[in-house]
Amino acid sequence: MESGTVIGNFYKRPGEKETRRTGELSPGRPVSLSPRLLFSRGFTLLELMIVITIIIILAAITLPQFQKTILHTREAVLRDDLSQMRKLIDQFAADKGKLPQSLDELVSEGYMREVPVDPITGQKDWAMTTGEDPNSSEGEQGMTDIHSSSGEVSSEGTPYSEW
Question: What per-residue confidence (pLDDT) applies to 52?
Answer without folding.
Answer: 97
